[in-house]
Design goal:
The chain is α+β, with helices and mostly antiparallel strands. The protein is built from 5 helices and 4 strands, in the order H-H-E-H-H-E-H-E-E.
Length: 189
């Protein structure tokens, strides 16, 4: 698949759309290896990933839904959202916690390491698209509490979850984008 076609075919495919079909370890490793080739200023390579599968997905779902209950005021609590959090974890074949390891020397601004990690995730997303794997990056407020679930290194934090699963392929509705001409200024003199 040509790169322009893959980029334009990229979509968020959400956990409720996933079907019960495993993703091979070889493909997950390819997704991670492609993430590892993202641009990185001063070669800090800040991206870190925690792969959650099997029973660990259930534990993560319980942790996230319980944390949602703990941090949500009673008047804002949604039983639907509580159940959706758990179901997202059980519906996905694989969940990858997207983490960032801050350079201990702070040799570059933090935003550059966040950007590098986001580029790594884009590589993951495009690899999934090319292999017809559904995926979705979620970054709920609950990521601020992930140090209670994962063992983080000093300076490491969670930026979200990358849900992955096979899905029934149907005709995709083209994404409408505003014209690039409205977003570009050419300066040639």
């Amino acid at each position: 698949m040509a790169i322009s076609k893959i980029i334009r075919a990229r979509r968020s495919i959400f956990p409720p759309q996933y079907i019960d079909q495993p993703i091979s370890k070889v493909l997950i490793e390819e997704v991670l290896e492609n993430a590892n080739h993202a641009p990185t200023h001063k070669r800090t390579e800040p991206w870190r990933f925690k792969i959650v599968q099997g029973d660990a997905k259930d534990r993560l779902g319980v942790f996230l839904s319980d944390t949602y209950t703990d941090i949500t005021p009673d008047d804002k609590f949604s039983p639907f959202k509580y159940e959706k959090i758990k179901k997202n974890c059980t519906s996905a074949h694989t969940i990858i916690a997207i983490c960032m390891q801050r350079d201990p020397k702070a040799s570059i601004p933090e935003w550059e390491e966040v950007a590098a990690t986001a580029m790594a995730v884009q590589n993951m997303w495009l690899t999934c698209t090319a292999n017809q794997i559904g995926c979705y990056w979620s970054s709920p407020v609950l990521i601020n509490d992930m140090d209670q679930f994962f063992d983080f290194e000093e300076g490491e934090s969670c930026l979200g979850f990358f849900y992955m699963g096979h899905y029934e392929h149907t005709e995709m509705i083209p994404i409408k984008r505003n014209s690039i001409t409205d977003k570009v200024v050419w300066m040639d003199s």
